[in-house]
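[job 4417] fold queue: 2 targets
>>> target A
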Amino acid sequence: MYARSSRHTREPHHRSYTLWLILLLALCIGLGYFFFSVKHIGSYLLREETYTITKGMTLTSLDTALGWEVPSLQYRLWVRFFAPDVTLKVGKYSASGMTIERFLTDSIAQPVHTDNTITILPWWNLYDIDAYLTRENVTESGAFLTAAQNIDAYRDTYDFLQWVSSLEGFLMPDTFRIRQNADAASIVSTLLDEFERKIAPAYRTLWDAAYDTLILASIVEREEKSSANKPLVAGILKKRLDEGIPLWADATVCYSYTLPQSLCTPRFISEHIHLDTPYNTRSTKGLPPTPISSISLSTWNATLNPTPSEYYFYLHDSAWAI
């Protein structure tokens, strides 16, 4: 009885030991496969297309940002332990026939092209342009404003800036191609170059009246969007100036508060229209101290050649009373 009982007692222990060996072997195989799947991430073949890297992307999030169909956990572990040491730069990069590892080591060093396209609209002010360039991942927030406010950096190049305190009004709107990673100062120079080309020759002939004309043109730009009506509006505003009547151009009110035009709403204007500031043309006679926006060439020409009329006021579609 004792011997038989002893044999039966050892058999369950033997089976338990075998089971643990099987589980350990399975775990080792699973971990080995997982390790292989992590290390293999770098060999994943990318689709043949051009990938765009924008500001804020990191190597850890690149798979999600660029739509790479790789296991998320394995990719992050691969980045942690096996990925090459690279610095991501904004740009467009080709991945024709490349693995992830080769894309990071080879393609990242060779952008497909180095140009961006930006479009600056005529009625935008400095704050609009800064917000737009930030949204488009062209510059960091505030970078354009900082560059534009450093007016002394541009005076030696552009003689029309010698006696002014702001670049507002001189930043010519249009569509431009700029290089990837262009700094804010070079973008400012690009817009000033366009003013030099389109308006500066006529601007210089006006002598002392030039800056006042530019300020008035910026008000016309904000007050009236119809090219056909701009000469008439310019004529009305000029007549009020000449006769010493406040302009009552509500579009000027917001400029004291350093706002982009999108925030210069009818409600904001109505809440601030009775506050006395240099840019409130209801409470202050004459022109504000500076232009309030960029201007188009057509608005400049309309202001140079205003249409005389018997009118002292004008109406326009409320959709434009931003």
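>>> target B
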Amino acid sequence: MSNKLELDLPLVLPEVPDVADACVQRLLRTLGAKSGVDKVHVLPATQSGAAKLCIHFDPVALTLE
């Protein structure tokens, strides 16, 4: 079973102006290649909040620490 962690993208990459930035793509590739990460993607910003980095991971293979 996969767990999910959502983080506000501006907290992870505060200097990045938007989700189309190359830094976001590098982060997605790097995290996606980690053992235990099932899926990583960006949820678009909404009227009530910023874009979110969403990481789906296997909690047995990868802990949040």
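[job 4417] complete. Note on B: Residues 8 and 24 are 12 Å apart (CA to CA).
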